[in-house]
Amino acid sequence: MKWSIQQLQSLKDEGLHLNESVDVQDLKATDREIREISDVRIQGTGSISRELASFTLTISGTMTLPCARTLNDVEYPFSIDAVESFQLSEWATFDKDDDVHELTNNTVDLMPCVRERILLEKPLRVFSDKPEGPAPKKGDGWELRAEEEKQQKVDPRLAKLEKYFKNNDE
């Protein structure tokens, strides 16, 4: 997923078609919440002009993340639509709002952009369907309870007050 400017210029007339599977296991070292990640499928097209190489991509795969409640493994499938543009000519000018990457060593490398997009797509938290897991349900001074349990439970200090109002209503 790396091309020189000369390679891209030779593909200017017919364009570039991508359909590759790449290994991005190094993302596990970058983000410790990613426990596992499958090979990522990259599909798309590239259009090349004299000043700009623009790629329209669909990045898809599956990553395994920890459940926010139980710490169980949760498989999270993702599909990302992205447009990445690279400046091929040093004399080309673009607006500050345009997201155009500058070249390093006169090569276009899509892999850093793909890794960045995957990390940006990772959700802040995911939840498992399993109610049990390695995470504790209670600790010193706290306990995990469902919302319904909180509403039905009456504070023992107010139990006598509740009885008083029930007697007055009758």
From TrEMBL:
Superkingdom of the organism of origin: Bacteria
Ranges where the record places region Disordered: 128-159
Pfam families: YceD
Protein name: YceD family protein
